[in-house]
Amino acid sequence: VKEDSAETDVYRGSPALLCRAMLILKLSLLFAIAPVRAEANDWASLRAADNRLASAAYRLSIADISLCPTRVPVTGLVLHELGQYPPRQRAAAAAAFTLGRGIGVISVVPDSPAARAGIAPNDEILSIDGKSVVQAVPGTLVPASFDRMERTLAILRGAGPEIRLDVSRGGSARTFTIIPMPGCAADVVLLPSHRRNAWADGTYVVVTTAMLDFVRNDDELAFVVAHELAHDILGHRDRLDAAGVPRGLLRSLGVGAKRVRETEIEADRFAVRLMAAAGYRPAAAVEFWSRFARGVEFPDPTHPPRDARIAALKVEVEAVGSAASSAPDGAAPK
Ligand SMILES: [Zn+2]
Questions:
Q1: What is the whole-number distance in angstroms between the Cα of residue 86 and the centre of ligand 1?
Q2: 39, 53, 230, 281 — which has fewest CB within 10 A?
Q3: What per-residue string of b and e applies to 280-315 under the rule 16 or more CB within 10 Å gives b?
Q4: What spacing in Å lies between the alpha carbon of 132 and ligand 1's midpoint?
Q5: Distance 302 CA to ligand 1 centre (A)
Q6: Of 64, 147, 164, residue with least CA distance to 113
Q7: Residues of the chain with pLDDT under 50
Q8: CA distance 24 to 12
Q9: Which of 266, 267, 271, 270 is nearest to 284 (CA)?
Q10: Phi and psi for 14 in degrees, rounded to 5?
């Protein structure tokens, strides 16, 4: 994995470089946590950043389920587990988050089904609908891995209209029942990294902490998340595969590059519609892109020229704007 090439381009990892993005996700989730993150203050920042990102994803996922072909149960749970952290970070993470053998609740999206059910940060989930998610604490030789989180998220995605959680709270056993909301699939993962980036891999959306720091407000964050969600929701990865567009670096050659550019514009347009549906300010898409693109060159031919991209975004923003202008003032975006 040559991290150098995953630079300050929100679109770079998606889906043009899906293979590598997946590799990064598999190999080094949370790997980029510097030792300094072990300080209490930084664990608190990680929790807050996780919650901020998950809250945007939650709001987008339930905004208009008619936009997505398949629906999943959405809970508002923001989860993590010890094995995601590099070995040298685990003792500090265990202490900061009371993480043990279960799946930890790092935070809960406000007003979500999980919040309504009474789930709280630092609850430790032991089983979901009777299926145990308890696992031995990983040894110091076990590298960081996302595998266990993937299995847990898959259980939640396949859950029914009620989800029963057996939880340890401060050492005492509790049981909670979550009534999930139907939503578009939006499993969003925060990756601590100094690189401003976000990408979609067909199932997950990954956003780095540096990107979270770069966005000026939650409207811009919503655009980043919605753009990547669009790649997953619209099945761009499968579509490009079916069209025979090669993955990896070959993707940037010939007719494949043109098809990838089309998916980028399509994801931008979908993102603007999703933002509007969720009550975000669609014009933030143009503001984000104008600022983000400044000074960044795109030698990669899979990426539309920035002016063309901004022009296409403006058209879409005006379209959703005029559609929304007849709405009552009370529906104004936050
Ligand atoms: Zn993209």
A1: 29
A2: 39
A3: bbbbbbbbbbeebbeeeeeebbbbbebeebbebbbe
A4: 36
A5: 10
A6: 164
A7: 1-40, 328-334
A8: 13
A9: 271
A10: -135, 135
Q: How far is the CA of 22 from the centre of ligand 1 (A)?
A: 15
User: How far is ligand 1, taken at its centre, from the CA of residue 87, in Å?
Assistant: 33
> Which residues does residue 188 pair with via DSSP β-bridges, in sequence order?
205
Which pLDDT score is estimated for 302?
A: 63
Question: Letter for the amino acid at 180?
Answer: P
Per-residue confidence (pLDDT) for residue 4, from 0 to 100: 29
Whole-number Å distance, alpha carbon 235 to ligand 1 midpoint, is: 12
Secondary structure (3-state) at 153: helix
pLDDT digits (tens, 9 = 90+) for 240-260: 888 887 766 566 566 677 788
Provide the pLDDT for residue 293: 76
Give me the residue label for tokens 């939503």: 183
Q: Would you state the structure tokens that stand for residue 109, as one six-digit string?
A: 């999206």
| Tokens coding 51 | 């919650």
Cα of 108 vs centre of ligand 1, distance in Å, is 28
pLDDT attached to residue 146? 84
Strands 103-108 and 77-80: antiparallel
What is the whole-number distance in angstroms between the Cα of residue 150 and the centre of ligand 1?
23
**H-assigned helices in the chain:** 18-28, 40-63, 87-97, 113-117, 147-157, 209-214, 218-233, 236-242, 254-277, 284-293, 306-324
Distance 291 CA to ligand 1 centre (A): 17
233 C-alpha to center of ligand 1: Å?
A: 12
Hunting for tokens 């980028």 — which residue is that? Answer: 264
Interatomic CA distance for residues 64 and 273, integer angstroms: 10
Predicted structure pTM score: 0.83
**Helices 306-324 and 254-277: angle between axes, nearest 10 degrees:** 30
- pLDDT of amino acid 63: 96
Q: Give yes or no for a contact between 122 and 95, defined as CB atoms under 8 angstroms apart.
A: no
Helix (H, G, I), strand (E, B) or coil at 73: strand
Per the listing, tokens 């300050």 go with 8
- Residue among 225, 267, 263 at smallest CA distance from 241: 263
